[in-house]
């Protein structure tokens, strides 16, 4: 076994290679000495070009904010976010890894291209850098439109359950909340005022959820609001779902009873 200072054929020492997260040989990573799975240039068998890593595509300004978060999460989960945010630039790695970096960059670039509609490919088709394309898409489509913010606020305020089930109604409301928060993010500091504001926002969501419920849930709604310790919106949702289930059971029992009496 070589010592920490022993040089390999690529000119790096064993210590250098350990610091880079490089371990044993792994043919899946460009034929260079193997890269540990925690290394940002590690490629798993599933990390190939041509796949779509999120379930929908960018169509324009109207859905950039909705697409951005799942795309970012998908890249972070694959430890490839550094390729697009500039942390893992080619020059930050030893020269013997540059060819492998190019391969990783090309794969990430293909993921980004596969996450936009064909009509938007024209401006990025011939780009060679994943970071450049990522930043260009942000410049073109990350526009906080005041009219969109207004319409989202209006949709949240006027959304009603109607013929929807509780779960579908709540899911739609959550989607609107998340899109609104992506456009108008809440303060992220840990100060007392910020914590108070976050508590206020949670209460606001609870009231918005309860306001949109059908009148058949008026009793359950009153029960929630009269509690000495008012639940958060997720807890209120669970209470209303239980009430919905009880109503369904009662309705089924009534139908069965009527049929038996005939």
From TrEMBL:
One matching Pfam family: Retrotran_gag_3
Residues that span the membrane, as ranges: none
Region annotation Disordered: where it falls in the sequence: 1-20
Listed InterPro entries: Copia-like_N
Limits of the Retrotransposon Copia-like N-terminal domain: 45-90
Biased composition (Polar residues): 1-17
Protein name: Retrotransposon Copia-like N-terminal domain-containing protein
The organism of origin for this protein: Nicotiana tabacum
